[in-house]
Amino acid sequence: MEISPIEDLKIIPDIVQPYPDPSVGREGVIVIDNGSFNCRAGWMLKEKPALVFRNILAKPRKDRNKKDIEVATVPVTQIGNDIVNIEALRLQLRTQFDRNVVTHYNVQEQIFDYIFTKLGINSENSVPHKVMITECLFNPNYCRSLMSELLFECYDIPGLSYGVDSLLSFHSNQRGKSGLIIATGYHTTHVVPVLNGRMVVENIRRINIGGSHMIAFLHRCLQLKYTFHINAITLSRSEVLLHKYGEFAYDYMEALQNWACLTYYEQNVKKIQLPYNQTTAAPALTMEQKFEKKKELSKRLAEINARRREERLAQDEELLMQLQQLEESAEDGEDIRDGLVEHSIKDVGELKRMIATVNSRIEKARQKMNAPCAGGSQSQLPSDSDKLLQPPANMSVVEWVEETRRKRDAIIEKRQARRQRKQDLAKRRTAAAQERMRIISHLARKEKGSDDFGMRDEDWDVYKQISREEDSDNENDSERLVEYDIILKQYDSTYEDPLLTMSGNSAELYQLHVGVERIRAPEILFQPSIICSYEAGLAETIEFVLKLFPAEQRGCLVDNIFLTGGCAKIRGLKDRLSREMREMLPFESRFEIEVAREPVLDAWNGASKFCLTETFRQSLITRPMYEECGGEYLKEHVHGNVYFPTPKDCGDQLTG
């Protein structure tokens, strides 16, 4: 499976364009597609916009701890492509939009300053060019009034015209006079029926789902799936992943079943490599270095064994001293029952036997510790480890290594089983916990000859003894595991140290497997309930709009279904919508679905072409007209909104 590196947004700062542009002159029209995600601005007659940038700005907060003299060192406001690293300023980003409606005109003014500056306009106190700008469907009159006021009063433009991005894209692709436009935006999706060149205003419907919701949902899914990389999975990277790997499923439920199949998953999952610090591989060792390393490991094993013997010897000596004190107290006629209970001893006879056992254990330990010094040479110090690092006489090296590996695997399995058992014992109602208490109770009854286990504190000595035995087993297993690791490192060339293996495979720890998320994020356009939205999906909304028309008009609409907007670039939308249309229309009904040539740029291209028509000149709002009719006034045309005058206040007409 091919592994692709994660791609970050590559942002190149805009340069200042030469002014005036020889190809348009001083009478050229400035075309601005003011989208809620990207803003596209440039001169008419151009093949593509001169500026394409994120419609946001980053305003740094002033540090209150700085003195007034240091105010000049505060970074200036960054706009559009001047923000090279969006994630570093994520908390400081601001936009002029509330969903798809411009509401913050102080931000919009700074965006206009950026546009006119980058276009190279250097005229004093004014912008001597007409402006063609897009607005959202059914833009409120108050918002249009503020936009007109900003452009006429602040920039003193000679003329202004408004258009709707989806209608301009429809015009740019020359889709005829009737059709059904599906405009997928960053915050909303619109279903716009067009008949005889005019949109049917009363039948337009909006879904409050767009590209931003898909990006946010994919971002959250990946963060929940890879909590260890929550900071590395950013919104910008999720945006890149959505547009590069996202797709609409032809049949969502069938696709989910396919992704549940391991074979399908392995064939279609996209592995994305996150950045990480790669550890350098250790160089190969020479024979001398291997010999020195063998001696070092041998010495290390001897030190481990010696340290454990010293610890056990110290514990046994302390235990022997306590038992001898109890014996002396018993000889003096004192009551030692509490001491016997503390050490789980029944009577004085058992006490003497335990003293003899501990004494014997101490003597053997001392003899073992003093054995290396018997020859009077320090070269015999790691004698135990030398014996351990050599195969037995009756076994070959290969057989000895295989047996050691089996023993090591058995210890690891035993430790895993013990760990799982401890987890089960921590829960009172598990079968393991109940079985353990049954065994303890059985041992207590057998030892005490009664059935009142748990009534006295000394009844729990059995439990302490069992816990002590388990701890002893853990220590022995750990010691043997260290020994087996040392043997395998020396004699098995295929053995890999678990720590080295983990560091060597660190690249796999920093990989994202984008599987079902590829279809789950775009699916919210058809099933908004996935993100707990109670709106209808795109297919249901289209069906509702079509039912508002008679049969003959419905045929004209479905013969020309037009997809535009940023989400139209996601793979599979046309095929999925074809399936949905086939299900909602009568049997063998004809329909045609087309995607815009440039779903993102066609609105600007359509506005640029519109500036060459006589309709544009008729739709211009001049400065005198603005002063006479007000900022909310709009000249209607086929590519713009319908003008609904704001009702006058009737309060003055009411009389007593």
TrEMBL record:
Query: Which regions form coiled coils?
Result: 287-368
Q: What is its main location?
A: nucleus
Q: What is its subcellular localisation?
A: Nucleus
Pfam families linked to this entry: Actin
InterPro entries in the record: Actin, ATPase_NBD
Cellular component terms, GO, for this chain's entry? nucleus
Q: Where is this region: Disordered?
A: 371-390
Single GO BP term:
DNA repair
- Entry keyword Heme: no
Q: Which family does it belong to?
A: Belongs to the actin family. ARP5 subfamily.
Give the protein's biological function.
Answer: Proposed core component of the chromatin remodeling INO80 complex which is involved in transcriptional regulation, DNA replication and probably DNA repair.
Assembly with partners or alone: Component of the chromatin remodeling Ino80 complex.
The protein's name: Actin-related protein 5
